[in-house]
Write a structure and sequence with these properties.
By secondary structure, the chain is α+β, with helices and mostly antiparallel strands. Helices cover 37% and strands 25% of the residues. The chain is built from 6 helices and 10 strands, in the order H-E-E-E-E-H-E-E-E-H-E-H-H-E-E-H. A hairpin with a 2-residue loop joins strand 1 and strand 2.
C-alpha cells in the first residue's frame, strides 16, 4: 500500500512538471534504464507497467525526468534505485532519443542507459506497479517509443558482447562451452555452429581448462573452463599500445 501511495504521488508530481514544460515550451530531459538480464538460457529485460492512461496495460522502461541538481549518470543510478531498489548495477550511456512527439505530454529528450546482469545475482527490492522480467522474444508493443529504444540497446549489446567479454560475468566461475554458447546465442538471437564457435574461443587463448567436468547433468558431461581476465587484459593492452606491461 505504501509503494502504491508513493507511485501515485510521483505520478501527480510528474504530470505537473510535464504540463509546466509544455506551457513554457521547454524541452525536458529524461533517462531510461534498459536492464538486460540473463537467466535460464534466456535474455530478458526489466519492464514496468506504464502509469499513463494513453498507454494503459503497456510495458515501459524504467525512466524519469532528470532533476536540476543531478547530472545524467546520477539520474540514471537514482532512477534504477527508486524503481528496483538495486544499487550494485553498472550502467553505461548508449544513445539519446529526441523525436518530436515521442512523449504525449510534453517535448522530452531521453538518454538510454544500459546494463547486463545475472538475474539470480541481483534481487529486486521493489515490486510496485508490476515490475517484471520479460523475455526479449515476447515483447511487441511498448509505451512511448520504448520498443525502439529497447531494440537499439539490444543491437548495442550484441555488438558489445562480440567486442568485449561482457558475458563471462553472467556465467559460473567454472563453465562449460555449452553454457558459453547458450549465452551468446541468447544475446545474439542466432543459432551458432558448435565447431566454429569453439574454434573461435580457443583461438582467443583466454580460456583455462580446469580439468574438471560438469557434475550431475543429464547429458554427457562437458569440460569446465575458466575465463582468464589477466590474459585478456594483457592482450587488450598489447592490441592498443603494441607492448606488454
Amino acid at each position: 500500500m505504501i509503494a502504491k501511495d508513493i507511485m501515485t504521488t510521483r505520478q501527480k508530481k510528474l504530470k505537473a512538471i510535464l504540463e509546466e514544460l509544455k506551457d513554457d515550451g521547454i524541452i525536458g530531459i529524461s533517462v531510461d534504464c534498459v536492464i538486460f538480464g540473463f537467466d535460464e538460457n534466456e535474455l530478458k529485460v526489466l519492464l514496468i507497467k506504464s502509469d499513463l492512461e494513453k498507454y494503459e496495460d503497456r510495458w515501459s522502461l524504467l525512466g524519469d525526468l532528470v532533476n536540476n541538481q543531478e547530472d545524467l549518470n546520477q539520474a540514471a543510478y537514482r532512477i534504477l534505485k527508486e524503481r528496483t531498489g538495486m544499487n550494485d548495477v553498472y550502467l553505461e550511456e548508449v544513445k539519446a532519443f529526441g523525436e518530436v512527439g515521442r512523449h504525449p505530454a510534453a517535448r522530452v529528450v531521453t538518454i538510454a542507459y544500459c546494463s547486463l546482469i545475472n538475474i539470480r545475482h541481483h534481487q529486486l527490492k521493489i515490486h510496485a506497479n508490476e515490475l517484471h522480467w520479460h523475455k526479449i522474444s515476447s515483447i511487441t508493443k511498448m509505451a512511448f517509443d520504448h520498443k525502439k529504444i529497447l531494440d537499439t540497446c539490444h543491437e548495442w549489446l550484441q555488438k558489445r558482447i562480440q567486442e568485449h567479454p561482457l558475458g563471462f560475468s553472467l556465467l559460473p566461475k567454472k563453465f562449460s562451452l555449452r553454457e558459453l554458447q547458450n549465452l551468446y546465442e541468447a544475446i545474439l538471437c542466432v543459432k551458432l555452429d558448435r565447431r566454429n564457435f569453439r574454434k573461435k574461443f580457443f583461438s582467443m587463448d583466454v580460456l583455462e581448462d580446469t580439468r574438471e567436468f560438469e557434475p550431475d547433468v543429464p547429458h554427457r558431461p562437458g569440460k569446465l573452463y575458466k575465463f582468464n581476465y589477466e590474459k585478456y587484459r594483457k592482450k587488450e593492452r598489447k592490441k592498443w599500445f603494441g607492448i606488454d606491461f
